[in-house]
Amino acid sequence: MDYQISDIVEMKKAHACGTNAWKILRIGADIKLKCEGCGHMIMLTRLNFNHRIKRVISSAAEPTK
Question: Which branch of life, at top level (predicted)?
Answer without folding.
Answer: Bacteria
